[in-house]
């Protein structure tokens, strides 16, 4: 900031004397106007000009400092981004050794640039994406090179004039077929990159082969340098601080559930004005968390596609049921739609007067659903069977039944409440019941996942019993403060961070 | 199918005689078992084996025919896909002339392959995407080539040993910086491809320059061949049956609205059991149309990013306010969330008994909202000011007010209805009121768009008047059959098609 100001200062004509305030902003320069006796209009113009000059400078300053702070935040939010950039730099420097080392250059020559190009195009943030692209590039090159060599030989047979015509026809034909194939949904989702590389290699080798007599050597050089580049990427991506798409997906699904849980717990407290558990009434930021869940479909699908390529790592074996995560994700999103509708009714100005009994029961439903989702998120995150979630869901269901009997009791619609006042209450009740149903569905799919991959069974010390119907007292479970199994509660802020990162990367 | 069966037939031992049913499926072969007297267990095994063989064959057959019909459907749904494939083939064949024509080959040599690679990587379905990628590739190559030549000269100064070290350091540094830059949201959204090409060109030219003394020539050849490839793509993409991303976005937004309108009109008829206007009660397919709207965010943002690159075309000038479309899209999606919640209540088994007056008013609200959205979709599609939408929104608002007074009237909660029955009704009422609000917001943003780009003002011949509050008779507007302005109604099925296409392509 200071540098830029002194630079501006140097640009000004020498007769102009400016005072800089302690904050570095120029003050209106009265001294100058008095000494030069410039008429008012001109004076104003000059002032504007100078202010403009300073304004521009400040603008640039502000933008640069905003940019710098954004860049810092990018790195601070997820240091793996910095590590990834260093990994790409390392891989690129390694493959450029093919040029710098004489023995290597002797064997590959200018074809070494394919290794450089492969590194730039194949190296992705997650190991799965890098593996997928690398393997696809290798296979597509192999297949296309073989076909191109065949096409070249075929074209060779047709004489000097026929050769370029036939080659051109082959190039045209394969480009049309594979470009059209890229519209096919399965190919588009999984093998899009492979199709592009096929078209590229086939065209390149069959066309180059027309000029280069050693077409087999050309194909071999392209294939071997691509294999060198691809394997460099894959090795560095997997061995040096790997980022696993599977783990990202796993964390994203858990954190999405956690966001819905935060909303429901906040809704239980804020809407029904019960600031218990130390939640401040003004802290309503958690009510926006669910919006990112609404649009997470693409991200989840991409991560699942990448995860399919990854070998076993950490708690995930090869062929981990990633599809099940998509199912859980879809159900979480359906719940988020209901929550978005609920959110539309969170208007403190038009808050209806709700009979206290209904308020309590609604709050309980919301809180219990929130607790259940928190348990489920935690269960996924730690890969431990979600015993306690069942209890919370039963609690919320019994609260819903309580609500039914409360609404049925004739005393409710007294003099204080007419039907019109009941409408918003009924809506919230109804949406909450929907949310309970959605939560149950989510729990079901999490249980399916738990049995598919054998989640660890850590029984809570206080064994939960099924509550009787209509029971109003919520049952104790692992997230209550005095329960011994509280030890598995993990740091939630990190959950938040991971999602926002993986989102921005999708 | 017949071919495959005869092939299977040939594979069987000669003693086996099979009967093919008229559908080509093998029948259980009783003749065979009688003549060979095979014991039952073996017989069963053989049967299974043969069935397995036929089963496999049929399986392959079924898959192939399914694939073929899918491919046909792909082309039939959107013939532009076939045209695009042909365009890519044409462009690739054109640039491969750089190899086949001696004079062209004399000037470019093997560098001609960059033109081939550029075509494969740059040619996209929409003109905007092709233009964006082409221009970015050109600019990034120019900038990176200039910097790489500079870096090469700098490294040259540092002697024989220092040169590769300094070059390697430069390559490492730019790879790290630009890979990290790709995480920056603005760069990621708009200049991701440019960054990749920058890294690629810089590495390629600075590293190749170490071996090739004519680094300037190398940079010039790469740049010129990339320009040839890029401009071929851009020219073909724009001149031969162009597909405009802007038009796609325009149609997508209109068709998304149309889908919501279909839902609301269907909901008005089906849920409230009023099969008027010839809508069959069983035809409930339109109730699923809105699900694709829920996840259209990514698609819309991509199309808007591509559309920014496009020159003026048809009814759209350069710098058409594409951002406004995103705003309308976001509001449409918000409405879709409410509709998804409404959809959860469309359970014919648990349909509550609703007093007929409420039912009628709810139905009217839903129908009027649907009509308003249809008008708005039509207005966008035809770029004509949406006069009639206002009328329908006012109608739905007055229906909502009617509903209020209906609910307030004490006679409603008679002996036939208790509070519990009221809950689902109240929820639907409340969600419909939300939908009315959302529709109003959508209308507002469409009006903003209409004033930004000067939509044509085709006043309806029957000038709509503002209805009085509480008026129950809906006002006439342009979508009523007898109105003269019915002429602007366009074919709706095409709307549906366009969206599904552009979605699958996103």
From TrEMBL, chains A, B:
Keywords from the named record: Ion channel, Ion transport, Membrane, Signal, Transmembrane, Transmembrane helix, Transport
Any Pfam family the entry gives: ALMT
Membrane topology type: Multi-pass membrane protein
Annotated compartments: Membrane
Region called Disordered, residue ranges: 460-506
Transmembrane segments: 82-100, 112-131, 161-181, 193-211, 223-245
InterPro entries registered for this protein in UniProt: ALMT (IPR020966)
Keyword Transmembrane helix on entry: yes
Signal sequence annotation: 1-17
Main location, first listed in the record: membrane
Composition skew (Polar residues), residue ranges: 469-485
Similarity section: Belongs to the aromatic acid exporter (TC 2.A.85) family.
Name this polypeptide is given: Aluminum-activated malate transporter
């Amino acid at each position: 900031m200071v540098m830029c100001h002194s630079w501006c200062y140097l640009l000004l004509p020498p007769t102009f004397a400016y005072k800089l305030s302690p904050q570095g902003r120029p003050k209106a320069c009265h001294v100058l106007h008095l000494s030069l006796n410039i008429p008012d209009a001109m004076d104003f113009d000059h002032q504007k000009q100078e202010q403009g000059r300073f304004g521009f400078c400040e603008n640039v300053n502000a933008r640069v400092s905003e940019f710098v702070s954004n860049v810092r935040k990018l790195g601070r939010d997820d240091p793996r981004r910095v590590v990834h950039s260093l990994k790409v730099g390392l891989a690129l420097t390694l493959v450029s050794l093919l040029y710098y080392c004489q023995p290597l250059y002797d064997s590959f020559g200018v074809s070494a640039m394919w290794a450089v190009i492969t590194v730039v195009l194949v190296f992705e943030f997650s190991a799965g994406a890098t593996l997928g692209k690398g393997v696809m590039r290798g296979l597509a090159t192999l297949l296309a090179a073989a076909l191109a060599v065949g096409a070249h030989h075929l074209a060779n047979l047709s004489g000097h004039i026929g050769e370029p015509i036939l080659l051109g026809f082959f190039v045209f034909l394969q480009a049309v077929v594979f470009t059209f194939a890229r519209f096919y949904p399965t190919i588009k989702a999984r093998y899009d990159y492979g199709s592009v590389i096929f078209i590229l290699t086939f065209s390149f080798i069959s066309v180059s082969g027309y000029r280069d007599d050693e077409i087999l050597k050309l194909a071999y050089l392209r294939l071997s340098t691509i294999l060198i580049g691809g394997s460099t990427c894959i090795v560095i991506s997997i061995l040096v601080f790997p980022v696993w798409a599977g783990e990202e997906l796993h964390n994203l699904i858990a954190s999405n559930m956690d966001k819905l849980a935060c909303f429901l717990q906040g809704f239980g407290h804020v809407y029904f004005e019960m600031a218990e558990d130390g939640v401040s009434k003004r802290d309503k930021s958690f009510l926006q968390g669910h919006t990112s869940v609404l649009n997470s479909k693409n991200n989840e699908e991409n991560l699942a596609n990448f995860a399919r390529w990854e070998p076993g790592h950490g708690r995930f074996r090869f062929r981990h049921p990633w599809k099940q995560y998509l199912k859980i994700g879809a159900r979480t999103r359906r719940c988020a739609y209901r929550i978005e509708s609920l959110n539309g009714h969170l208007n403190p100005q038009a808050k209806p007067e709700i009979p206290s009994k209904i308020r309590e029961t609604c709050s309980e439903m919301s809180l219990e659903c929130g607790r259940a989702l928190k348990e489920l998120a935690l269960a996924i995150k730690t890969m431990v069977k979600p015993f306690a979630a069942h209890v919370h869901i039963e609690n919320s269901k019994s609260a819903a039944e309580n609500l039914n009997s409360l609404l049925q009791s004739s005393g409710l619609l007294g003099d204080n409440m007419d039907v019109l006042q009941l409408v918003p209450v009924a809506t919230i009740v109804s949406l909450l019941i929907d949310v309970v149903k959605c939560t149950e569905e989510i729990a079901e799919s999490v249980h399916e996942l738990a049995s598919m991959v054998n989640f660890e069974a850590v029984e809570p010390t206080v064994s939960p019993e099924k509550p009787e119907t209509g029971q109003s007292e919520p049952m104790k479970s692992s997230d209550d403060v005095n329960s011994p199994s509280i030890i598995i509660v993990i740091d939630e802020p990190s959950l938040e961070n991971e999602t926002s990162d993986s989102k921005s990367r999708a």
